[in-house]
Every structure is written in structure tokens, then in C-alpha cells.
Amino acid sequence: RKEVEQDPGPFNVPEGATVAFNCTYSNSASQSFFWYRQDCRKEPKLLMSVYSSGNEDGRFTAQLNRASQYISLLIRDSKLSDSATYLCVVNIPYGNNRLAFGKGNQVVVIP
Amino acid sequence: DAGVIQSPRHEVTEMGQEVTLRCKPISGHNSLFWYRQTMMRGLELLIYFNNNVPIDDSGMPEDRFSAKMPNASFSTLKIQPSEPRDSAVYFCASTGILPLRNTEAFFGQGTRLTVV
Predict the structure, then answer these.
(1) Which of A24, A72, B20, B94 is spaced 20 to 30 A from A52 at the CA atom?
(2) Separation of alpha carbons A106 and B32, rounded Å
(3) What's the mean pLDDT when you consider all of chain B?
(4) Which of B76, B100, B79 is closest to B25 using CA atoms?
(5) For residue B54, is the peptide bond before it cis, meaning its omega torsion is within 30 degrees of 0?
(6) Pairing status of strand B31-38 against strand B88-95
(7) What are phi and psi of B31, to 5 degrees?
């Protein structure tokens, strides 16, 4: 099983609509979770950390489900500028502790 | 701070040539990571350093790849000899604290490598 799995999409979303997607992770000992955003031909940048209680940042809501080992990202009132790839990132706490990246969910917001 | 700086931004080389990618992490960060990104495989960790020491190089694909970090402000990733399948975007990232709990990884703009 892959360390982090995401459905690559693309997710075609009408402007103003809500889109949500999940990411599953395989290591039950993982403690840190993040969503990164990557624009076309750019580097990944942190969008938000994901906390156990769930957290919100404007139109973005992230949630963690430890029992089922998945995290989710919801985008409300989608804007054209939200078009990007959203990478799920999980720490792998073996010895040296590193970050594992999913392949990303590609979101295309359509006018 | 200028962020993580990578050079060159683009590199086109012929198969069999040596390629050297460079990275300057954010000042004060003590962990540095090299990633490779392709459409097929996504973002893959190649190697990472903590306090200039290589910690995990299990992601390095084969002996043609080597990485060094001679000091806290500079790292190189070398491919010798290069092959067309090495064509990808190579990212360098740095973080301030290990373990990585709630620590943001800052990425450079990447080097787009094309081996023909």
C-alpha cells in the first residue's frame, strides 16, 4: 500500500461551487498532516496544516479521521484562482522522520 | 530572506553528460531535502540531510546519483552519467526543525532537467 494516496482527478468545478477530496495514508503512527498547493510549473507551498479537531482557513476546511486514516480538504465558493494541484502530505515517523507526499488532486475551476 | 535558491532553473543536456544541481537552503534551517517530480511518479524524496549529514538516501534511484552538503548553506545533487529517464523537475526544500511535527517545508523553484 502506498504511503499516501490521492485520486489525481482532475476535479472540474464550476466557479462558486464546493469541492472536496480525501487523501488516505498507510502509517497509523503518523502525527503531522498538511495540505500543500502546487500551481502549474511552480513549487509546492504550504496551504494549511491539519489538526485533529479539524481546522478552517477562510474558504478552506481540513479534517482528519484517524480511525479511517484519511484527511480531507474542502473548498467552498471556488474561485478561478483556486485552480491548482493540492498535495496531501504526511509525516512518516520511522527513525529519521520524513514527509511523504501524495501525487496530488488536480482542481480546475471553470468559469 | 530570499527563500530556498536553486540553480540552474533549466538544464538541457545530452545523455551521458554529468549534471550538477545546486541548492542554497534558508539560513538557519538545519534540514535539507532533494525531491524529484514527474507526471508518472509524482513527488519523490531522493535524499535528506540533517545538520549537513545525510540521514536517508534510500530514495536515490541508483549509483549514478550522488548528493553532498559540504556546509549548512549549500548542497549539490549530481547525476553522472545522465540518462533520458532522469528528465524531471528536481526540487530542493528546507525545514528548521526535526522531527517535522507541524514544521513547514519551504521549496525552491526547482530545476527542470531535460536529458536528450
Answers:
(1) B94
(2) 27
(3) 91
(4) B76
(5) no
(6) antiparallel
(7) -125, 135
Alpha-carbon distance of A57 to B84, in angstroms, equals 42
CB contact under 8 A, A32 and B42: no
Query: How high is the pLDDT of residue B83?
Result: 96
By CB neighbour count within 10 A (0-12 exposed, 13-18 middle, 19+ buried), where does B58 fall? exposed
Question: B56 pLDDT exceeds 90?
Answer: no
Which site among B36, B40, B43, B109 would you substitute to test the A interface, given the most A Cβ atoms closer than 10 Å to its Cβ?
B43
H-run or E-run covering B91: strand B88-95
A interface test, pick of B47, B100, B109, B113 with most A CB neighbours within 10 Å? B100
Q: In this structure, what C-alpha cell is assigned to residue B8?
A: 540552474
Q: Does A90 contact B at CB distance below 8 Å?
A: no
Nearest to B99 among A44, A45, A97 (CB): A97
Which residues does residue A75 pair with via DSSP β-bridges, in sequence order?
A: A19, A60
Q: Which of B33, B48, B100 sits opposite A32 (nearest CB)?
A: B100
Checking if the pLDDT of A96 tops 80, the result is no
